Amino acid sequence: MITIKDIAKMANVSTATVSRVLNNNYPVSQEVRERVLNVVKEFNYRPNDVARSLKQKKTYLIGLLVPDISNPYFMEIARGVESVVSHLGYHMLLASTDEDERKELKLLKLFYEKRVEFVVLATRQNQATILNEFIHQGLKLVMVDSEIEGVKADVVVEDNRYGAYQLVQHLIEQGHQKIGIINGLMDISTAQERYQGFHDACIDHKVPIYESYILEGAYNRKKAYDSMVHMINSQSKDLPTAIFSVNNDMTEGVMMACKAIGLQIPNNISLVSFGDIRVPELIEPKLTIIHQNPLEIGQKAGEILLSRISNSTSVPYKKHIISSKIKIGSSVKRI
Amino acid sequence: MITIKDIAKMANVSTATVSRVLNNNYPVSQEVRERVLNVVKEFNYRPNDVARSLKQKKTYLIGLLVPDISNPYFMEIARGVESVVSHLGYHMLLASTDEDERKELKLLKLFYEKRVEFVVLATRQNQATILNEFIHQGLKLVMVDSEIEGVKADVVVEDNRYGAYQLVQHLIEQGHQKIGIINGLMDISTAQERYQGFHDACIDHKVPIYESYILEGAYNRKKAYDSMVHMINSQSKDLPTAIFSVNNDMTEGVMMACKAIGLQIPNNISLVSFGDIRVPELIEPKLTIIHQNPLEIGQKAGEILLSRISNSTSVPYKKHIISSKIKIGSSVKRI
DNA sequence: ATGAAAGCGCTAACAA
DNA sequence: TTGTTAGCGCTTTCAT
Question: At the top level of CATH, which class does the domain B56-158+294-324 belong to?
């Protein structure tokens, strides 16, 4: 592999000069510049970024750690990050944690050893103490999607509580008093907050909350399907009139359950969802949902990290809340 | 930042010894090993991988270049790659080309400067000559999804021609003689091959091909929708009895068009698709499709690149074809 | 405007 | 088993 030394020799200059013309950061005479450039072109020389990184202590690497890189939601976030950092020459190192705490830790460690300048972390586990330890060692972090209480890092999340609140309020306004919820894993901040929104809306409007209508969906479609089928079968004489599904994946499960059993939405049961299902254009009815914007989360995270990289002055960590808009469909029956 | 030198000093050994205990590649006495390990732990030392890469000329980096990192199809491929390379300590650098040839070239160049050990490229453009130039300079490449004729690299693709062939043959077996096709961009290999399959099936079974039934879908949903609507409106007295949609995204567009206009599938028109639509569970009817397996493409690409990295002996480049299975649904009417 | 040389943080060949 | 040291390919300070 051809190095700067080779180029220097061929152009009859020092390596310093070659570096200067390549980086355009110090005065070089026209004549020498051209001579060097010619040799560079002739040999198709490409500087070794590893060496440069070592010398400059700058890798232009951003690590992205998400539960699953094939999950469109997270990849929209990634896309958002990429869109703002790529212009500055940053590249993204991507990896899936598979929701495995040990793997996540291992990846954080590896990212750190690769000297990524920042990591964007979408995690649903791990303790604040462990993450803070990394941070203490100099790892820069910005958390997206979920929050972990006590972590010393910026956070970009959706307005989960208020989004959920709006959805449930809408149900109540349409006359619903028996509202069920398909819940996420309660050790995850997003699930807690969305549940909180449900809870607050019910309390504020004096609507009772029934234990038996609180279903465990575990943030996955299969589980949501099973829970829903089970409830319908076991409480068929006294079903809720409306369901609030806490994420889009589970919403698909709920709809599949209704379809399988023959419950019509919204005739037999109403449904609202945090996040839209896929290809809604082909599916009836149009759901009333909270519209999510993962791209914006990613962009925000990208901006934050860029500004932290450039401004070494330590401004305090902040929680950025991306507001979520409700979109009214026809999945709620007025009763 | 703490370095191997610091550790060496604190443990009263040479840097070489620290390196040895960390890498476990040379004999070190128990006593010294423990001493070093203690200091490492105490200071939470993490070796600088940039320096190691420079020295070893090994980055453990795989570059992935796809049109769009938020496209689930490509991210399934990425997932496949990751699943096989991550065990060996490889990391993935990911970037979107946005179908922009210049951007793609720039990214290839940057990946090269970062000294990625391999790049997995899913591209739909660029000439073989340009790519071969990179390869000539030492860039290792494996192409996925699409093929570019003449590129000196391994290729992993689906069996596009035969998949399409099966689909169209199925239509013909069900009695269809007037078959339309929503086509991709014909400068992309996958589109060419799928069209070829359509063409061959028609020829082999002596079914006529009508020019006016060959629609431009441009591999995108919106265009497919528009083309479909236009055809239905302009040729309403003599529509094809069946449509072959060349990719899943366009299939969604076709279904939306049918829905908008009130054409029922398969009653009024039959439909087969290369690749399944999203959430098929919630959509009627079940389509007859070719089942795609991007994960497998990624895994295969990962295996290939791993074996090329380890076996320096140059085996000839090969085209790997992932076979595609037909899945019969209820979207084709027997006539 | 240019060159010499130190050094980024490691690894590994060589010596002891 | 351990230490010394050269060197990976760059950048940048200091001379000139």
Answer: alpha beta
